[in-house]
Specification:
Length: 189
């Protein structure tokens, strides 16, 4: 009887071990997620022992990499067409206070952010449809606001799509850098 119980436990242990080893996890994403905050690095304030500033904006986005390719103006991010402004899921921007985007007053909340890149300006589009993949299912009725932003050239290539906020008088600019391009989305308080 004792031998049967020990054998039963041994078999159960093997089954548990087999099931644990059978679990498959996906490999790393080629375009990892990242986040940008305004004020910059605000989530680290308390951890780093700095005075905690009020968080005003947070954006989550996928960071595609160039890997020797031309992306802006090509199929991944064509000029003159709506683009998800990153990779994978459409990115999401959260405003923790009401802001003005273009001429539209936008309530505090979370929105998807798209762009229409061009060589001389980018048009940024706030949209209310969350949890979407890419920009392929946009409905104009869910568009919240649009604003045009200037484009400049970077001194050095930017391998990964990158986003940071730059404080300006009366608000901030979301700075989007990739390849040799920097586009600015103005946001006012």
């Amino acid at each position: 009887m004792k031998k049967s119980i020990i054998t039963l436990f041994a078999i159960a242990a093997l089954l548990v071990t087999f099931n644990a080893q059978a679990q498959k996890f996906p490999g790393p994403d080629a375009s990892p997620m990242d986040a940008a905050y305004f004020p910059d690095q605000q989530p680290l304030d308390e951890v780093m022992g700095r005075p905690v500033k009020e968080l005003k904006i947070k954006i989550y986005y996928g960071r595609p990499q160039l890997k020797g390719r031309v992306m802006l103006g090509e199929k991944p991010a064509p000029f003159g067409e709506i683009w998800r402004l990153g990779a994978n899921e459409a990115n999401e921007i959260t405003f923790y206070q009401d802001v003005t985007v273009g001429t539209t007053r936008v309530k505090a909340g979370t929105y998807t952010l798209f762009s229409i890149p061009n060589t001389d300006k980018w048009t940024f589009v706030l949209h209310s449809k969350l949890g979407t993949w890419g920009s392929y299912t946009l409905q104009d009725s869910k568009e919240i606001a649009r604003v045009d932003g200037p484009v400049s050239k970077s001194d050095e290539p930017i391998e990964y799509l990158s986003m940071v906020f730059k404080e300006v008088e009366g608000g901030t600019h979301l700075m989007v850098g990739w390849e040799n391009t920097i586009a600015e989305m103005p946001i006012k308080w």
